[in-house]
Design goal:
The protein is an all-alpha fold. Helices cover 75% and strands 0% of the residues. The longest helix is centred in the N-terminal third of the chain and has 31 residues.
Length: 153
């Protein structure tokens, strides 16, 4: 980080934010398509990750601290290792995206269809990771979650 120039930081943030916005539009479009099929993404009664169900400070921490660990595990470790073992970065991105989506099914009140838009988001975060590294994927994930948080509030 000390060796990065201002232009490098600007590039990192621009790419990360572009991927966050692309992930948001993808997730919303896929979510609508899944909804039109009559599949529910989550149970409104059981799903707790909304500002109506938990305090705003806890919600903020959840959507902005957990992505650091998620990106470290799913992109920094899993994507890297899957790419190495399969000798394919594309397959590594896909494997990490599927694992990322399935991991999110552990959220209370989620249904299997919840994973569908998250696979697309995981692929975009994986590509972001390949382009600008772990920091970019973390920034992108946090920005995506923050935008969702603002939309919910």
């Amino acid at each position: 980080a000390r060796k990065m120039r201002q232009l490098d930081w600007s590039r990192l943030f621009a790419i990360a934010l572009a991927f966050a916005i692309l992930a948001l539009f993808s997730a919303l479009a896929i979510g609508r398509a899944v909804d039109k099929l009559g599949w529910k993404l989550y149970s409104e009664e059981e799903f707790i990750l909304t500002p109506k169900k938990i305090s705003l400070p806890l919600f903020f921490l959840t959507v902005n601290i957990l992505p650091i660990f998620e990106e470290w595990v799913f992109r920094g470790i899993l994507l890297k290792e899957a790419s190495r073992r399969t000798r394919s970065r594309s397959l590594g991105v896909l494997i990490s995206a599927i694992a990322f989506a399935l991991f999110h099914l552990s959220n209370p009140g989620t249904y299997l269809a919840y994973a569908i838009p998250l696979v697309a988001g995981g692929i975009l975060l994986g590509v972001c990771y390949l382009l600008v590294g772990l920091g970019g994927a973390i920034i992108s994930h946090c920005a995506y979650n923050s935008i969702l948080m603002v939309m919910w509030v």
